[in-house]
């Protein structure tokens, strides 16, 4: 069984500024600091934010779905501004998923505006099909809003200088 969910939000910043946040480790650091209701911890296990980087995400108590998992950066395209991560240990894999991939894309709209698109793609064993209900775009919506607010705040600070 294959599925996909996605979310888009418009950002009032250039695509290059948005990619600086979403394309590497910065969004993980921000999420770890600013979203304790969603993530208890975001730990860097290996890497520097480039291809092959591994993070361990530990969700806050009460968040539906797995309690934690490790994800690996499997694709980073700085030209097209696309980053993909896949769960490589625990979490969704323990629940019958054979693939759980998150893609972040920053799409240039115009010079001062861009779109942040996040997508979850998953494959699930048929005998675990009921676990598809655990897949939710809501954490990505929360992360996108956090990123949007952070970028807007930094834009105002830059303009004030």
Automatic annotation (TrEMBL):
GO BP field: alkaloid metabolic process
Residue spans crossing the bilayer: none
InterPro entries: Bet_v_I/MLP, Plant_def-hormone_signal, START-like_dom_sf
Keywords: Alkaloid metabolism
CDD domains: Bet_v1-like
Domain named Bet v I/Major latex protein: residues: 3-131
PANTHER family documented for this protein: BET V I_MAJOR LATEX PROTEIN DOMAIN-CONTAINING PROTEIN, OS08G0374000 PROTEIN-RELATED
Similarity comment text for this entry: Belongs to the BetVI family.
Protein known as: Bet v I/Major latex protein domain-containing protein
Organism of provenance: Flemingia macrophylla
């Amino acid at each position: 069984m294959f599925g996909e969910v996605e979310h888009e939000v418009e950002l009032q910043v250039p695509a290059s500024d948005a990619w600086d946040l979403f394309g590497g480790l910065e969004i993980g650091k921000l999420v770890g600091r600013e979203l304790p209701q969603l993530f208890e911890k975001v730990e860097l296990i290996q890497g520097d934010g480039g291809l092959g980087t591994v993070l361990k995400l530990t969700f806050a108590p009460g968040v539906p779905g797995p309690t934690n998992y490790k994800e690996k950066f499997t694709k980073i395209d700085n030209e097209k501004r696309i980053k993909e991560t896949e769960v490589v240990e625990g979490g969704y894999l323990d629940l019958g998923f054979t693939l759980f991939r998150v893609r972040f894309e920053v799409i240039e709209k115009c010079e001062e505006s861009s779109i942040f698109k996040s997508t979850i793609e998953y494959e699930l064993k048929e005998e675990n099909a009921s676990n598809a209900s655990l897949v939710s775009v809501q954490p990505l919506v929360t992360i996108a809003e956090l990123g949007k607010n952070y970028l807007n705040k930094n834009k105002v600070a830059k303009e004030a200088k």
